[in-house]
Amino acid sequence: MRLLVSVANSSEVRAALLGKADIIDVKNPAEGALGANFPRVIKEIRKLTPKEIPVSATIGDMPNLPGTASLAALGAAHCGVEYVKVGLKGVTEVEQATTLMREVCLAVSELPEPPEVIATAYADASLIPALLPEHLPEVAAKAGAHGCLIDTLGKSSQGLVDLMSPEELKNFVVLCKKAGLLCGLAGSLSKDTLPLACKAGPDLVGVRTAAINGDRVNGLVQKEKVEELKSIMLSAGSL
Ligand SMILES: O=C[C@H](O)COP(=O)(O)O
């Protein structure tokens, strides 16, 4: 299992790396849960991060606009990242979501070393409303994406483990694995709730709020917090 730590700027990268993050995830929390950052920031973070540590970039909490999504994904791919994450906010049906994700996969596939595409659904999808997480593996597999992540859109109230039961999390992981998809879990995971997410057996768990001091937009990633989360993940993974 790997620990993904979301950073908003280059000054947070050092702390995330010193704390032994396995994946550096670039996003812009000021623009949403999966807010897209600026190409200059993504490129700088890729440059600062050792080659052996993958960098991912989010392209936004996407409306149902496959053209916009595919263009944004190609832009992120050109910044040299290993993963591109797409938030499926504006789609509710499997067919719509598959069309959007297929265009994203097609767009990045033109590069000699294309990034892996990660489709993201929200655990609070029924409140948005958006594609339900249980449909995500089917969408990702049909579209030719590499993986699936569940996150939360609302960051002020309930987190992943409040919104989904251990059985639902486990089922999601099983569906992903059956389809040969990388599988990630995130959404306001804390020191206390991280082990519950790990128990479901995903390939990665993602954090930001728990790794920073202050609020999600203005706070900065702290090495000690990342270190602690990594050790919690490692011990929970062996439960
Ligand atoms: O991809 C992971 C997210 O950045 C998680 O953020 P959060 O822990 O603030 O919900």
TrEMBL record:
Kindly indicate whether the keyword Lyase belongs to this entry: yes
Q: Where are the transmembrane segments?
A: none
Keywords in UniProt for this one? Lyase, Schiff base
- The question of whether Ligase is a record keyword is answered with no
For this protein, the record's Pfam families field holds: 4HFCP_synth
What Gene Ontology molecular-function terms does this entry list? lyase activity
Q: Which InterPro entries match?
A: 4HFCP_synth
- What Enzyme Commission number(s) appear in the record? 4.2.3.153
Reaction(s) catalysed by this chain, per the record, are: 2 D-glyceraldehyde 3-phosphate = 4-(hydroxymethyl)-2-furancarboxaldehyde phosphate + phosphate + 2 H2O
Q: Which residues form the active site?
A: 27, 85
Protein purpose:
Catalyzes the formation of 4-(hydroxymethyl)-2-furancarboxaldehyde phosphate (4-HFC-P) from two molecules of glyceraldehyde-3-P (GA-3-P).
Q: What is this protein called?
A: (5-formylfuran-3-yl)methyl phosphate synthase
Annotated source species: Dethiosulfatarculus sandiegensis
